[in-house]
Amino acid sequence: MIPSNGDLVKPRCSFALALALAALGAACASSKLDLSTTAPSPDRRVGLRAGWMNAGEAAWNLRLVSTTQPSAEFIDLKDPNDFEYINSDLAFLGNRVIEGNFHGFQVWDISQPDHPTLVTAFVCPGAQNDVSVYRNLLFVSGEAPNGRGGTGAPTGADSATLRANAQTIVDRIVEGPPRVGPRPGPTQCHDITVYPAIGLAGGACAGYGLLLDIRDVTNPRRISAVADSNFAFWHSATFSNDGSKILFTDEWGGGLQARCRVTDRREWGADALFTRQDSTLTFRSYYKLPAPQTANENCVAHNGSLIPVPGRDIMVQGWYQGGISVFDWTDPAHPKEIAYFDRGPMD
Predict the structure, then answer these.
(1) Staple 145 to which of 59, 154, 207, 296, CB 3.0 to 4.6 Å?
(2) How far is CA 308 from CA 45, 85, 181, in A?
(3) Taking Cα atoms as reference points, which of 120, 122, 140 lies closest to residue 130?
(4) How far from 335 is each of 84, 180, 220, 246, 287, CA to CA, in Å?
């Protein structure tokens, strides 16, 4: 897991690579962690010291193993808030961590978690630069044309050309027929998560949470959609291990807003949990970081990953400057936090 980084993107976030170990079951009972099934009270995350590389830290059922400063080309030591060097998402391949950054990406060898080593750093400025791995292929998704190849100054026409041809590219990849005419409904999605084993995909799309039948990959079909007036920006979707549940996240304000203050409602910038029965999605509850954050800390739900625990659905999720929260949503009506790691605000 990558606390205070990785999934924690945008301004005023940690720029370091931090690795933590989780203790979530009996298999970890021999560790030196002070394990507890009851959250500490008062919450250790409240009132942490502000700082850049030396902010105060709080952990429960997690142990920080190492913190590694970015390589020289991926940090502006004069300006902690330089937007060009913000970390975005992470991808894993064996003992390698690929760390996306608005300035490109870095690859780290974490064979020794207490001493990560840099394998390579590839400079390619472009907003987001989210990274994904499929087999031996690395995909980097940018939101700006400034990292493109070719000659001449980048223009909006570059992005327009890609958007106009994106469906044709996908059709050719899966050898399907060309699409004819516009489709009804949302025209764009932030994230789509596919679960090939059950033939489904979940999409966070233009104000909706979608459920797609992808058994025929050349002709995906929307079979269900949900909406929520408390959600501002549908960001991502995550299936439970058996596919009977799906979780949608709300990245209120694109991740720039402080939505974990004591005055903020629990439904804002949170997760919405649904159960699935065939093509019917039923809302069960919200989950939000339990610890209140300051007005100086951007904090909303962001990407999460399931931890493979048989018979349970456990997720580790980034909350920007809210740190990471590990929670059990096996019972979607009563999700419960079981571990956390947090750092104090940048300022």
Answers:
(1) 154
(2) 26, 32, 42
(3) 140
(4) 36, 43, 31, 13, 6
Q: pLDDT tens across 138-169, in order?
A: 998 887 766 555 566 656 666 677 667 766 76
What pTM did the predictor assign? 0.82
Q: Of residues 9 and 137, which shows the higher confidence score? A: 137
Q: Do 285 and 269 contact (CB within 8 A), yes or no?
A: no
CA 62 to chain centre: 19
Query: What is the Cα gyration radius of the chain?
Result: 20
Closest CA to 83 of 104, 105, 102: 102
Give pLDDT tens digits for 268-280.
999 999 999 999 9
What residue ranges define each of the domains in the chain, with the CATH number in brackets?
Answer: 17-343 (2.130.10)
C-alpha–C-alpha distance, residues 202 and 195, integer Å: 8
CA 148 from chain centre, in angstroms, equals 25
Tokens of 153: 């100054």
Query: Collapsing DSSP states into helix, strand and coil, what is residue 180?
Result: coil
Average pLDDT in the 331-344 region? 97
Q: Is the peptide bond before 42 cis (omega within 30 degrees of 0)?
A: yes
Residues whose CB is less than 8 angstroms from the CB of residue 277 and which lie 6 or more positions away in sequence, other chains included: none
